[in-house]
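Sample pair:
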Amino acid sequence: MAGVLIDLAIDAVVEALGIDAPEESIAAAKQAAKMAATAAQQRAGPEASKAIAHHAPKADEKGANKPTSATQSCPVKAGQKGPGDEPPDQKKLQNKIKKLRDDLKRRYAEMRKDQHDLYNKARTEEQADPNKGSWDGHIRQFKQKQGALRKLLNEPQAKEYIISDDAWQWATEAPPVKPALPSPPMNP
């Protein structure tokens, strides 16, 4: 099955780029790609086979394989369902995950900016400003939000559906160690 996908992919690239290459060169490229895919599949194990089977083109009534929207561009991983397949509870889970991810992005950007100079003025929780908190307190909150996001991402139903391309990145991103350096003043 991987061979069919590789042939389709290489043919699509050759056509899209308008490459005028000899058939032998294209055949050699397909063979090299198939060998690389086979080696990668062996290293990846059974999950790779499931992914390839999921993305494989469907046979038409004559038995010929033809590209489908899934083979042209499909972000769905093996064992996952695509967008629109989610039950209502899944939508709630996705919304919670996206909200936590967005909150982590916002907190990260705010810590890099450090508008209230907490890194220098209130680094520890003992030095916390009653209204703005402390640098360490913001790090603790960032890590707590990450833990909550990881917990949601590890729920069985989260693994069945595509949630967000960068949710795991934000669930594991280290909080800023210190703010970004301020830009030097610009001279007119």
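The first strand starts at residue 58 and ends at 59.
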